[in-house]
Amino acid sequence: MLKLIIFLLIGYFALKSIKRILGNGSSTRVPGGRGEADQIDDLMVQDLNCQTYISKRDAVQAVQNGRTFYFCSAKCRDAYLADV
Ligand SMILES: [Zn+2]
To answer: In this predicted model, what pLDDT tens digit does every residue of 5-29 receive, in sequence order?
Structure first.
């Protein structure tokens, strides 16, 4: 009888750890629930008006002649686009 209990306990813990490994495999890459888009957005880009580097996620974007430019603020974007 004792052997059966030990066997069941081992089986229970084995199942638990397998579930934990499988669970980690599918969820470690998306801690915030946003995944790959986050990594791409995290690039640093240069503000062409004031030469500051900002993260692409926070940057103000402007498209001109098919090219995308990034700025730290709408003020910089407007100043740069007014210059060109
Ligand atoms: Zn700027």
So the answer is: 888 888 888 888 878 878 765 555 5
